[in-house]
Specification:
Number of helices: 6
Oligomer: single chain
InterPro entries: LiaF-like_C (IPR024425), LiaF_C (IPR047793), LiaF_TM (IPR054331)
Protein name: Lia operon protein LiaF
Keywords: Coiled coil, Membrane, Transmembrane, Transmembrane helix
Radius of gyration: 41 Å
Strand content: 15-25%
Strand order of the largest sheet: 1-4-7-13-9-12
Organism: Paenibacillus methanolicus
Shape: extended
């Protein structure tokens, strides 16, 4: 099977499935809400991408089994959770991923085919750029000379015979520029005129390019000034999704769960980044300093859970951005795709202790609750 045909086949089946669902909804055979359908069955997209990658690997040999397996596993976990088939999470799946990867690597080492040995060609069969030279072979004679070009076509040629040198031909007097056929001076005059025209044309083109470059430079400077003014005006309203302070604490993980706040600890500005797995931040036992403390959490696939202390002396501002998943912040809850939320507690600006929590996730739920 051709890889391009397999790719077209998978996308065609996917589009046909969408059209069939819409047709059944229009005819009244099935009734469903489009938002609820997307919020429940969005993992089907991951399953489709995983199956497409596997079919592409089987059909054309291109692609990766690892990416296909990861997409299928994550899609099955999220789809099963949405359909209430099981209560697995990505963190539970990641606990088995490490040993499974080690087992697969060992099996691959056992069944890996032996590399083919390189067949060396004998020296006689190697390609050579130049023919070999044999000094014993006789040198071929030189080719005969051409006929004398100074003789007219009607005169007999002594080609191939021993001949005497021909008498010198008298030089031809050069003709004046004003005659019917211009001589050397006429050709030089035309050449100089042509060079002058070319020089004038190049000068005009150079001036045109210089004017164009000047206009472009003025346009770039004007846009730079506008961008600088707009950046200076909106600097305080811009949201930074990552704290670039060199003194900030950083926690990162690839696969698994991250839990911060097991015991009593002092809260400091923090960056938490995670690829696959759940992220849990417990601030109920944290000693919160005076002033504003920024906490940035970035997750690709997995849930983000933050537990805040129920303290009226501490103001909280939560900014969340989720591509697919449910978002529940304090007393507000939203679900679906492309969800952004900005929630702050009453009198946030007047509180002496402030926590600004910025959460960004691609696929997963975000839950920020107060405990106590």
């Amino acid at each position: 099977m051709n890889g391009h045909f397999a790719n077209r086949l998978m996308w065609g089946l996917f589009i046909i499935g969408i059209g069939a669902f819409l047709m059944l909804r229009q005819t009244g055979l099935i009734e469903y809400d489009l938002g609820d359908l997307i919020s429940v069955f969005w993992p089907v997209i991951l399953l489709f991408l995983g199956i497409k990658e596997a079919v592409r690997r089987i059909a054309s040999g291109y692609g990766s089994w690892w990416s296909s397996g990861i997409l299928l596993a994550v899609g099955i976990v999220f789809l099963g959770r949405n359909l209430d088939l099981f209560d697995w999470s990505v963190g539970d799946l990641a606990q088995f991923a490490g040993p499974l990867v080690i087992i697969l690597i060992g099996m691959r080492m056992m069944v890996k085919p032996k590399p083919k040995e390189k067949i060396e060609k004998p020296p006689g069969e190697e390609w050579s750029a130049y023919p070999s030279f044999h000094p014993d072979e006789p040198v071929p004679p030189a080719p005969p000379l051409h006929p004398d070009p100074t003789k007219a076509s009607g005169e007999p040629s002594d080609f191939g015979k021993d001949s005497f040198p021909a008498p010198p031909v008298p030089p031809v007097a050069p003709s004046s520029p004003t005659s019917g056929q211009p001589g050397a001076d006429g050709r030089d005059w035309k050449r100089r005129a042509h060079n002058e025209r070319m020089q004038e044309e190049w000068n005009r083109k150079a001036e045109k390019l210089q004017r164009r470059a000047e206009r472009m430079r003025e346009r770039i400077e004007h846009r730079a000034d506008k961008f600088k003014d707009r950046h200076a005006c909106g600097r305080h309203d811009r949201m930074e999704w990552w704290n670039s302070d060199p003194n900030v604490q950083t926690r990162s993980g690839f696969i698994g769960d991250i839990y911060v706040g097991h015991d009593y600890w002092e809260l400091k500005p923090m960056n938490i980044s995670h690829f696959i797995g759940d992220t849990v931040l417990d601030l109920t036992k944290a000693q919160i300093p005076y002033g504003e403390t920024r906490i940035h959490i970035s997750s690709f696939i997995g849930d983000v859970k933050v537990f805040l202390p129920n303290d009226f002396e501490t103001g909280v501002n939560v900014v969340t951005s989720a591509f697919v998943g449910d978002v529940a912040v304090l007393d507000r809850k939203e679900g679906g795709i492309f969800k952004n939320m900005n929630v702050e507690t009453p009198y946030f600006q007047e509180n002496e202790k402030k926590i600004k929590l910025i959460v960004s996730t691609f696929i997963g739920d975000v839950r920020v609750t107060k405990v106590g």
